[in-house]
Specification:
265 residues; alpha/beta; 2-enoyl-CoA Hydratase, Chain A, domain 1; 2 domains; three-stranded mixed beta sheet; 9 strands; globular
Length: 265
């Protein structure tokens, strides 16, 4: 499929999903949001893409909302505004719920909705010059759709500061508050992303998806009888699965498992 605002590459075991409006700092509009929903679904179904890497072409990751789109949105009816917001909410959930590991490759600005895309990904690697900002309150708006992912990524206390102050902060601070996992020099960003893709792709595809589901289902629950029984049942199911049996067999036979890129074909 040809995209107007995105570019997809399948290589090295990953699906690289590039926001491709570099002249507008990859600002999102209705076309990009619709294409993101389609592209994420396509990559989820693509066996050659073991990992999804989200990045931005040019000097910025994503500067938030496109100004022309924002101008048009001022005239939306309540029903149109609700539908418009729901489309971005669906994209964020598609990233968060993807059965595959998702990795944000961040350089330059990751503002407003762009910061939401970052927070919805499982892992984040940013260049040292990256900048982050939740600018909504300065425009009389609120970071509503992105809030569930930001709160999970950085916690309530840090979210209160940055959602309310709308201050710009750097990659070092983003790493300090837990939004970014690794901060690297700009000239090593791609190599660091490639190394992480290799590490992620070594996992069994089904086990990766089930581990993501495990995290979503267990986080925040009290450690009581229900959680203990649930997690015991999940590992029993994993042991009996085709992947579990193959993984254990390959370990004892000192060979690569069938899903490994290094396994004989």
């Amino acid at each position: 499929m040809a995209y107007q605002t995105l570019e997809i590459e399948i290589r090295a075991g990953a699906g690289f999903l590039w926001l491709n409006r570099p002249d507008l700092r990859n600002a999102m509009n209705d076309v990009m949001i619709g294409e993101l929903a389609t592209a994420i679904a396509a990559l989820n179904a693509e066996p050659a893409a073991r990992v999804i890497v989200l990045g931005g072409r040019g000097k910025a990751f994503c500067a938030g909302a496109d100004l022309n789109w924002m101008r048009a949105a001022r005239d939306f009816s309540p029903a149109e505004a609700q539908a418009d917001s729901a489309r971005l909410a669906a994209v964020l959930r598609g990233l968060y719920d993807s059965p595959k590991p998702t990795l944000a490759r961040v350089q330059g600005a990751a503002f407003a909705g762009g910061m939401g895309l970052v927070a919805a990904c499982d892992l984040v690697i940013a260049s040292a010059e990256a900048k982050f900002c939740l600018s909504e309150v300065r425009l009389g708006l609120i970071p509503a759709m992105i809030s569930p992912y930001l709160l999970r990524a950085i916690g309530e206390r840090q979210a209160r500061r940055y959602m309310l102050s709308a201050e710009v902060f750097d990659a070092a601070q983003a790493r300090h508050i837990g939004l970014v996992h690794e901060m690297v020099a700009a000239d090593t960003l791609d190599a660091t992303v490639a190394a992480m893709v290799t590490a992620l792709a070594a996992g069994a595809p089904g086990a990766l998806g089930e581990t993501k589901r495990l995290i979503r289902d267990v986080v925040g629950r009290p450690i009581g009888d229900e959680v203990v029984a649930d997690t015991a049942a999940r590992i029993a199911t994993a042991r009996a699965s085709v992947e579990g049996q193959e993984g254990m067999a390959s370990f004892f036979e000192k060979r690569h498992p069938a899903w490994s890129p290094a396994a004989p074909r």
